[in-house]
Design a protein that fits this description.
Strand order of the largest sheet: 1-2-3
Number of strands: 3
Strand content: 15-25%
Structural class: alpha+beta
Number of domains: 1
Low-confidence stretches: none
Distance between the termini: 42 Å
CATH topology: YefM-like fold
Mean pLDDT: 84
CATH class: Alpha Beta
Radius of gyration: 15 Å
CATH superfamily: YefM-like domain
Length: about 70
């Protein structure tokens, strides 16, 4: 698994995308891993969706929905 700093990821976003299409990339901030970027195909495989899953889910995680004002009333 590749890794890069948040600064390198910010200024080299195209490179991050290219790397993540071939293998997951750990993005580090202040030397600590904070996120992993991976290809959508790998993400879908991990979620068990695969190619035969039909339409993609548009569900927004609860913490994100609340922050965006999208929570259900």
């Amino acid at each position: 698994m590749q890794s890069m700093s948040a600064k390198d990821a910010k200024y080299g976003f195209g490179r991050l995308i290219d790397l993540a299409r071939s293998e997951p990339v750990v993005v580090e901030k202040h030397g600590r891993p904070v996120v992993v970027v991976l290809a959508v195909e790998e993400y879908e495989r991990l979620r068990g969706e695969g190619k035969n899953a039909g339409s993609r889910s548009t569900r927004v995680p609860a913490h994100t929905a609340k922050r965006r004002g999208l929570e259900k009333v």
